[in-house]
Design goal:
single chain; about 220 residues; alpha/beta; TIM Barrel; eight-stranded parallel β-barrel; about 40% helix; binds the ligand Cc1ncc(COP(=O)(O)OP(=O)(O)O)c(N)n1; binds ligand 3NM; binds magnesium ion
């Protein structure tokens, strides 16, 4: 296996859906199937929150969602839990600034995809130096999904990174919907990452399709 190319990573980030059991009112399997039908390009398993599954239940739930992704050839990324990602032979891992260091995670996962959450230029440069394949930048808008999220920062860091000539694949996150996604792309982002816009939609396929059509319309 070799590391994913910058171009392939950018393509995968276009509509990046993140979900765990606590983000859904409908059956999560149905939500994921519908999101894939609507055109998501990448999936992150993020099982967090008070009523989240743990231990064997978490492992089994991840396996079920991973098998849906495999059936449709959507790469499956695991949030935070490197050991789970390795046990499942997932396609990659996403970590934040409060998780294990990117350098340590890169050593553990070899050439699997590594995403790192970043909130300023120093964190972006460090993530790249330590082996990130992409960076998440957020929260772009305010979000109620992540209890410990920082204040909304709009697209200014995306612009700053691009103005420095850094071409790392970037995905924006936080409060994004098809109504407000355009500035992320126009500032130099390669895609949008969403939870609520799809997971709590009454029609997840339609919401995913609307996001895909918007992103596709921006080139
Ligand atoms: C694509 C993407 N970007 C950012 C995050 C947030 O990661 P982190 O800061 O580690 O917070 P948690 O998601 O672990 O609560 C993400 N998961 N995905
Ligand atoms: C998981 C996560 N990380 C963020 C960050 O800023 O790093 S914001 C966020 C929550 C995104 O959920 P929604 O699309 O429902 O706002
Ligand atoms: Mg994390």
């Amino acid at each position: 296996m070799t590391r994913i190319s910058t171009k392939d990573m950018r393509d995968l980030l276009r509509v990046y859906f993140i979900m765990g059991s606590t983000n859904c009112q409908l059956d999560p399997k149905h939500v994921l199937e519908q999101a894939i039908k609507g055109g998501i390009s990448l999936f992150q398993f993020r099982e967090k929150g008070n009523a989240a599954f743990t231990d064997e239940e978490k492992f089994h739930f991840a396996q079920v969602l991973q098998s849906i992704c495999k059936k449709h050839m959507i790469p499956f990324i695991v949030n935070d839990d490197v050991e789970l990602a390795l046990a499942l032979n997932a396609d990659g891992v996403h970590i934040g600034q409060d998780d294990e260091s990117a350098e340590a995670v890169r050593r553990k996962i070899g050439d699997k995809i590594l995403g790192v959450s970043t909130h300023n230029l120093i964190e972006v440069e460090k993530a790249i130096a330590e082996g990130a394949d992409y960076v998440g930048i957020g929260p772009i808008y305010s979000t109620e999904t992540k209890v410990d999220a920082k204040a909304a920062q709009g697209t200014k860091l995306i612009l700053e990174v691009r103005n420095k000539g850094i071409n790392v694949p970037i995905v924006g996150i936080g409060g994004i919907t098809s109504e407000n996604a355009a500035p992320v792309m126009k500032s130099g982002g390669n895609g949008v990452s969403v939870i609520t816009a799809i997971s709590l939609s009454a029609d997840p396929a339609k919401s995913a399709r609307e996001l895909k059509e918007l992103i596709d319309s921006l080139g």
